[in-house]
Amino acid sequence: MLNRIESYYDAVPRSSARAEAHGPLTLFVQEGKGWPYYARPTLGHTGDVPVEAVEAVRARQRELGVPEAFEWVAETTPGLRAAVEASGLTVHEHPLMVLEGDGLAVPAPEGVTVRLVDADDTALETAVAAPYAAFGMEPAPGTAERVGERIGAGLTRLAAAFDGAGEALAAGQHQPVGPVSEVVGVGTVPAARRRGLGLAVTAALVADARARGAELVFLTASDADVARLYGRLGFRTIATALIAEPEQEQEQEQEQEQETEPQA
Question: Model pTM greater than 0.70?
Answer without folding.
Answer: yes
